[in-house]
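Write out this protein's structure.
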Amino acid sequence: MFEKLRGAVDSAVTKATTKELNEKNLADAVWDLQMILIQNDVAVEVAEHICNLTKEKLIGTRAGRLDNTGKMFRAAIYESVLEVLTPRHPLDPFEFASAKKSKGEPTVILFVGVNGTGKTTTLAKLASFFKKRNFSVVIAAGDTFRAGSIEQLERHAGNLGIRVIKQEYGSDAAAVAYDAIAHARAKHIDVVLIDTAGRMQSNKNLIAEMQKIARVTDPDLKIFVGDALAGNDALSQAKEFNDAIGIDGAILTKVDADPSGGAALSVTFVTGRPVLYVGVGQGYDDLRKFEPEWFAQRLVAN
């Protein structure tokens, strides 16, 4: 996990600290770092921001020995990455749902993303998490477009002992989601998880349909599910979805297979919303709460 980027950062630190870190050497080192970040799926504007923060933290510092210089440089990168990963709008879905449950109100969560990111499986993982924490859950089969999507959702729900609200393929996805929310209110169910069809961020008709679902259901939380292996594509997707409906957080899948790690940095920085969880496998328990400190430590080997 993140081996490629971590190794590249190590190389940059080693190269930078073989000599005194004066103004010129620092500029060269930061430029090398910026190129390494960009080559490892960190968006250009994010890489520039991290490097500017790193440079600011190092300017004016002095180290007596080269090994101390290396520690300072590594610590500055770590602090800069952590600063980028700390969201402007933090969110804990379970704390949010607990507050609503105490008022007798259901929490409605809408899942969005492009095709093939593992959105439905991720929804099932979060459903399992909620159920283990004694929340009652119902799932809305809002992907009425993709063949087999409802059956896939029903298999997950059957494994977890959770009811699915569904209609026929081709039905209005917003109506399916609305029915699920009405069911939750009537039966005093704590959490409604709404699956939706995967859609490319460039397809205006499908984006308009997603906006309709959001208007009709007025969800408490809108979660973007992105593929960590998509790199900068995940960034552009998150940005477009955020512009369209205003996402509250992101879940990145396939992080266990991601050698770069750039997507997490880019998505958080550009949307201002946190990465909530990362998928690290196919099992229902393979969803890890995203901790910025954990990510920064793995990246910088601090």
